[in-house]
Amino acid sequence: MNACILYLNKKRIEMIKLESDHMESKYWEKLKETDKWDFAEITKTLDSPNEVILVGESGLNMEYRRWLANHDRVLAKKLIAVIGSTIETKINPSVVSHFKEKYFRGRA
């Protein structure tokens, strides 16, 4: 399995990368509300997953999906779910387990 969950909110973006034998996490934070997200840097860090789930604030999910459509269509085609949510600023392990079981199970 080479999959990724990308959790987006106004102050923090967290990437959970799931591979067959381990899980890796990385995050980016905004220092100021007016700062713009560097979607190019974030996308480069994803390192070509086979499947991606976006979780987070609907407006930011849409903004990132538009960016992908214009800048990285290969990755855009790998989105298997976009889930609007206003969960806490950091994604917790039980949510990761839930998404892994629901969306990636049997797809490895």
Short note summarizing the structure:
35% of the residues lie in helices and 31% in strands. The protein contains four helices and five strands, in the order E-E-E-H-E-H-H-E-H.
Describe this structure in words.
By secondary structure, this protein is an alpha/beta fold. It is built from four helices and five strands. A five-stranded mixed β-sheet has the order 3-2-1-4-5, with helices on both faces. Strand 1 and strand 2 form a beta hairpin.
Write the layout of secondary structure elements.
Blueprint: E1 2-8, E2 12-19, E3 23-29, H1 39-46, E4 51-56, H2 58-71, H3 73-76, E5 79-84, H4 93-104
Parallel strand pairs: 1-4, 4-5
Antiparallel strand pairs: 1-2, 2-3
Proportion in β-strands: 25-35%
- Gap from first CA to last CA: 4 Å
Strands, total number? 5
The strand order across the widest sheet is 3-2-1-4-5
Helix content: 25-40%
Helical stretch tally: 4
Note the main attributes of this structure:
five-stranded mixed β-sheet, 108 residues, alpha/beta, 35% helix
